[in-house]
Write a structure and sequence with these properties.
Length: 281
């Protein structure tokens, strides 16, 4: 895809990108090895649809896979980051723990427990979250979702909640939703009170209206592009008010640490002692 309004890089852009590239060791591929570690499966097509329309398509950024060297129009660091973000699939993180990456701008984590899935951060939209849950169920065996943890109050960490559960399941007490102190207040502030400003900023920040190609939209740092589709919210059923709070989640011990303003105004880390795993979103 091209854009007739696109212009070639000026001599100033070329010089700035060349100088930036000189600071990066492109022969060091350790990031790529780490990013591919644990890959066990990929989405069948890489294309996630809603009513026949693509809301996420890994093929749209194939130009990042086809050209190792960054073009004159793109900062070399962004090109390299885009190549890393172009890696996608279901990854085994540890025994009983998997992540789906590369199908949204955030990662969704699946932890196997005795009676189903504990899910951490259900992505931005229902469509991408549902596709990742289907991928996990198809590859690892279908399990019911019994708990969802929101690590913090940014949309890409809770907006896909209806892709993994329903309000009815939560109301019936079949699904727990756990969030940090101040979560709902900060969600309202960011997405309703400041919503119009945030949306306008996102158009400048992420370039969602630009066509994906080396003279248009390349990558947004967190992932290849903003996912399309609907975002929703189911309020938490449990709130972590204090650091040191310990919960039993289907037999799995979890210790929480509130970390407000680390990345978001409402945020928390948590540790799984039996698995020796720490989640710091």
């Amino acid at each position: 895809m091209t854009d007739p309004l696109a212009k070639p890089a000026t001599k100033y852009t070329i010089e700035a990108n060349r100088n930036a590239g000189a600071l990066i060791n492109f022969d060091d591929d350790s990031d790529f090895k780490r990013a591919q570690q644990g890959l066990i499966a990929t989405h069948e097509t890489g294309r996630i649809e809603l009513e026949g329309r693509a809301v996420w398509d890994t093929a749209s950024h194939n130009f990042l896979r086809e050209e190792k060297q960054s073009p004159e129009t793109v900062h070399p660091g962004l090109w390299r980051q885009g190549q890393l973000n172009a890696l996608h699939g279901l990854f085994e993180v540890a025994e009983g723990v998997w992540q789906a990456r590369g199908y949204d701008i955030s990662n969704i984590t699946f932890i196997e427990t005795s009676n189903g899935w504990l899910i951490i951060d259900p992505l931005t939209t229902s469509s991408t979250a549902a596709a990742c849950l289907a991928l996990a169920n198809n590859v690892l065996g279908e399990r019911p979702v019994h708990t969802v943890i929101y690590t913090h109050s940014h949309l890409d960490h809770f907006g896909g909640i209806l892709g993994v559960t329903t309000q009815e399941e939560v109301d019936a007490g079949n699904v727990r939703i756990i969030a940090p102190d101040g979560f709902l207040e900060e969600v309202v502030k960011e997405n309703i009170i400041a919503g119009p400003i945030m949306a306008r900023r996102a158009h400048y920040q992420f370039g969602p209206l630009l066509p994906p190609w080396p003279q248009g939209q390349v990558d947004i740092g967190l992932g290849q592009s903003l996912p399309l589709g609907a975002s929703h919210l189911i309020p938490p059923t449990e709130t972590v008010y204090e650091t040191g709070t310990e919960l039993d989640i289907d037999g799995l011990r979890v210790i929480f640490q509130n970390t407000p303003d680390a990345e978001a105004p409402s945020e928390m880390n948590f540790f799984f002692p039996e698995k020796n795993l720490l989640c710091m979103a």
